[in-house]
């Protein structure tokens, strides 16, 4: 750590990944972190999870650059917001810099508290995001994953969606994805590659 | 945003603070490590157990006090020893701690305590740094994962140098933040062997008195060590308007927010290195102490005659992240408060934690929500969620095991106004063994009239499914003796006839048992015995679906609170009585459903059927 140097704030990339417990938000951010680490960046990753395993809100903050001090992204300072769930992306939109980019899964997860009629789910969360003047790329990651035969691939679809929005080549992220999933089950390698490319294409086409 | 091309070679390790502490414990040649799970500290022992290390014994203890005593025993025989706990865990272990500081330790003894600053998963927020003061022990406060490693390693050496335990105080924002870690060289430590020394280890007054005196002498030596500690250092800065004194992760937030300000970074923060603080104060216009939660450093600086600001400027609760620090410091300097431009905060529905799909607790709380005139004394665990929607069936939650004593007190203290009220206590298996058993003994011995629901899901659920003495497995997943809860309750004095073991998915059976037991004026225990859905041994059964044409919109199934049930359409009808009734027509997310059958039972029109017709409906009970 430099003892005196001025923090070179502009060199830091801030990515906020949000969703709900069990969607793979933390794993996706972990893979993103591994990609950044492989390039020699200083990286910090932190979760605001609470009792997230129980279907609550999860946000994962990833910061990388030459030297990262505080692990937390401040409101108005995220370069990229990745929403694994539509309303959650809207919930965290204030974290983005003005005119920054949000990549959002249109899939909705409606909690019991809404189902029993105490609160309402926003009618059009994607429209809500667009109304904020944010660059929105919305796609159905859950369907893309289900079409490949496994809803769990949604995670990789989301990572693919980020691939062309990072300060490093998409292949670096793909390598990190394949290293993570391929190491566990080689059979999943090809499926993950496909899911990654589907996510990438979904954003490019949007 | 451009790729770094001249970056140094990648560092291999990317660890959370918890993982870094675990690695340090292993590398320090520690021989015994024990803990009771508790957010945010749980992953330390999990990491140690995941990769068994030759010569290192790990265990989940039944509570934090036992974990500290196990660690002390190992230290007595000369081994390096470690225990970890969350902040409230040290309250439980405090009885042992306050005498261990008198005996001191032999093999290096390190206590990691993790404060849940911001209360992401705790019943209170408290500042464990007080324990350093209270127990006259050195206290280290890492700011990130690398420091977690370095300080946990150094803590063993410090412990052996001063023959006393060392506290490593972590916070959620250290435990759960991942960063790059460069580990040191592992070392080996052979236990030096037990040396009988009653004057040291047998704490009767005659032996304790001289040791208490030497504890105060140790304080002086520890303060000198803090002044010289490499973990306490100055970071110079050109902006002398404010000099910051920081501890723990607040250092990172201060450096992020005020890169040009001088900062005294305190890592070995107790005893406080006053000379360094005094030197900084002399060079700046004013000192601002940035410490999370209580004003400990601030109070001690003031007592030493060093003027400073602190909690008059900064909040005493929650994290001191840059969005809190920057406006507070701007106000202190009389500058305009600015924030980064951003979209307005969106007011959306809350998304509180919920019970899992098919959680066995769903049946319990569905049933408790139907019982009238009852006071439900709750406890710490997933089942605390029963206080929330749609059940609203938990009336208190205080501390581990408190459901027992609180229930007995309600029973003994009630007046005529509550004469017909039933008193029910709800406690999980692990919480019961942690601190609930003694409470039950108190209930039986003192002839309390309490009905106890002992929810045995064979795991420590809320912290992610750790083993406990009711799992039949140890920390490594190996087979281990399994406690028999019915026999245990009987041994604690509950009459055999008043102990029932039930399936929590059988709603009518559960309801009937609860109604009967609450009417009998003596202690009774209803044990439910279905496993947590998150553990490896949970077996899913065929899922259900809703026949849309048959659903009448009665919404009874929504009262179960299962996250797999979703509303497709809402409507309302006016009954012949003139009353308007809201309707909610539902579907079941079959992909998420694991076929527990709870929602089938209150469905009056029998609209819920197996998604695949070849599977018969398991529990087709009518509405209770």
Strand tally of chain A, please?
Answer: 6
Question: What would you say the CATH architecture of the largest domain in chain B is?
Answer: 3-Layer(aba) Sandwich
Give me the Rg of chain B, rounded. 28 Å
**Total separate domains of chain A:** 1
Show the largest interface. A-B, 75 and 72 residues
Number of strands of chain B: 22
CATH topology of chain A: Pyruvate-ferredoxin Oxidoreductase, domain 3
In CATH, the homologous superfamily of chain A goes by the name Pyruvate-ferredoxin oxidoreductase, PFOR, domain III
Low-confidence stretches of chain A: 1-9
- Integer average pLDDT of chain B: 94
Inertia-based shape of chain A: globular
Mean pLDDT of chain A: 90
Q: If strands are numbered along the chain, what order do they take across the biggest sheet of chain B?
A: 3-2-4-5-7-6-12
What is the highest CATH level, the class of the largest domain in chain B?
Alpha Beta
Cα separation of the termini of chain B: 62 Å
Task: Determine the structural class of chain B based on helices, strands and strand pairing.
Answer: alpha/beta
Number of helices of chain A: 8
């Amino acid at each position: 750590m430099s003892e005196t140097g001025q923090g070179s704030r502009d060199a830091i990339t801030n990515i906020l990944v949000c969703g709900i417990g069990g969607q793979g938000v933390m794993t996706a951010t972990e893979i993103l972190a591994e990609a950044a680490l492989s390039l020699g960046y200083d990286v910090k990753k932190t979760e605001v999870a609470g009792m997230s395993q129980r279907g609550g809100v999860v946000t994962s903050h990833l910061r990388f650059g030459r030297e990262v001090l505080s692990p937390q992204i401040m409101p108005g300072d995220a370069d990229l917001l990745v929403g694994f769930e539509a309303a959650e992306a809207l919930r965290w939109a204030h974290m983005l810099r003005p005119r920054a980019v949000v990549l959002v899964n249109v899939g909705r997860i409606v909690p019991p508290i809404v189902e029993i009629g105490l609160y309402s789910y926003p009618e059009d969360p994607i429209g809500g995001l667009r109304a904020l003047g944010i660059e929105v790329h919305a796609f159905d990651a859950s369907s893309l994953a289900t079409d490949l035969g496994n809803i769990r691939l949604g995670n990789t679809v989301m990572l693919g969606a980020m691939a062309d929005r990072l300060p490093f080549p998409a292949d670096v992220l793909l390598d990190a994805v394949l290293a993570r999933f391929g190491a566990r089950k080689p059979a999943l390698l090809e499926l993950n590659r496909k899911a990654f490319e589907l996510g990438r294409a979904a954003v490019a086409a949007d | 945003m451009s790729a770094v091309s001249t970056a140094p070679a990648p560092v291999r390790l990317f660890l959370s603070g918890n993982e870094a502490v675990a690695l340090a414990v292993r590398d320090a040649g520690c021989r015994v490590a024990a803990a009771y799970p508790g957010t945010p500290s749980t992953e330390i022992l999990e990491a140690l157990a995941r990769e068994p290390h030759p010569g290192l014994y790990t265990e989940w203890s039944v509570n934090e006090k036992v974990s500290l005593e196990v660690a002390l025993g190992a230290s007595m025989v000369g081994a390096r020893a470690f225990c970890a706990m969350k902040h409230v865990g040290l309250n439980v272990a405090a009885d042992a701690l306050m005498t261990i500081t008198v005996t001191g330790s032999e093999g290096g003894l390190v206590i990691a305590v993790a404060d849940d600053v911001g209360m992401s998963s705790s019943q209170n927020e408290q500042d464990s740094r007080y324990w350093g003061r209270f127990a006259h022990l050195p206290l280290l406060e890492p700011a990130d994962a690398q420091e977690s490693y370095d300080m946990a390693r150094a803590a063993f050496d410090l412990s052996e140098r001063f023959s006393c335990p060392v506290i490593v105080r972590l916070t959620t924002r250290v435990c759960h933040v991942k960063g790059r870690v460069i580990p040191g060289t592992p070392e080996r430590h052979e236990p030096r062997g037990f040396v009988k020394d009653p004057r040291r280890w047998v704490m009767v007054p005659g032996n304790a008195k001289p040791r208490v005196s030497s504890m105060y002498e140790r304080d002086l030596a520890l303060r000198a060590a803090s002044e010289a500690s490499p973990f306490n250092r100055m970071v110079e800065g050109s902006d002398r308007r404010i000099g910051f004194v920081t501890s723990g992760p607040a250092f990172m937030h201060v450096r992020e927010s005020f890169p040009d300000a001088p900062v005294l970074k305190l890592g070995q923060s107790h005893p406080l290195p006053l000379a360094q603080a005094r030197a900084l104060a002399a060079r700046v216009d004013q000192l601002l102490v940035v410490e999370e939660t209580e004003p400990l450093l601030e109070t001690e600086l003031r007592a030493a005659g060093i003027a400073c600001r602190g909690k008059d400027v900064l909040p005493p609760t929650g994290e001191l992240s840059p969005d809190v620090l920057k406006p507070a410091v701007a106000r202190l300097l009389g500058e305009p408060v600015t924030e980064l431009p951003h979209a307005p905060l969106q007011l959306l529905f809350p998304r509180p934690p919920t019970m899992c799909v098919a959680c066995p607790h769903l049946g319990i709380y569905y049933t408790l929500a139907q019982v009238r005139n009852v006071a439900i004394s709750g406890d710490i665990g997933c089942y605390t969620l029963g206080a929330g929607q749609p059940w609203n069936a938990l009336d208190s939650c205080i501390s581990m095991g408190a459901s027992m004593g609180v229930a007995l007190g309600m029973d003994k203290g009630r007046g005529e106004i509550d004469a017909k009220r039933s008193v029910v206590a709800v406690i999980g298996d692990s919480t019961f063994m942690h601190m609930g058993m003694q409470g039950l003994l108190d209930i039986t011995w003192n002839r309390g009239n309490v009905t106890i629901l002992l929810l045995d899901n064979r795991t420590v659920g809320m912290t992610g499914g750790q083993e406990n003495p009711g799992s039949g497995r140890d920390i490594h997943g190996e087979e281990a003796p399994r406690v028999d809860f019915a026999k245990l309750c009987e041994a604690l004095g509950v009459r055999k006839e008043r102990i029932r073991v039930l399936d929590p998915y059988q709603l009518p059976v559960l309801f009937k048992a609860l109604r009967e037991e609450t009417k009998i004026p003596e202690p009774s225990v209803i044990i439910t015995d279905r496993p947590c859905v998150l553990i490896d041994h949970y077996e899913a059964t065929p899922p259900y679906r809703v026949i849309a044409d048959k659903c009448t919109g009665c919404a009874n199934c929504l009262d179960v609170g299962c996250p797999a049930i979703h509303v497709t359409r809402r409507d309302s009808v006016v009954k012949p009585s003139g009353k308007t009734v809201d309707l909610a027509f539902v579907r079941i997310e079959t992909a998420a459903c694991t076929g527990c059958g709870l929602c089938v039972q209150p469905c009056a029109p029998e609209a819920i059927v197996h998604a695949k017709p070849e599977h018969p409906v398991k529990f087709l009970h009518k509405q209770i």
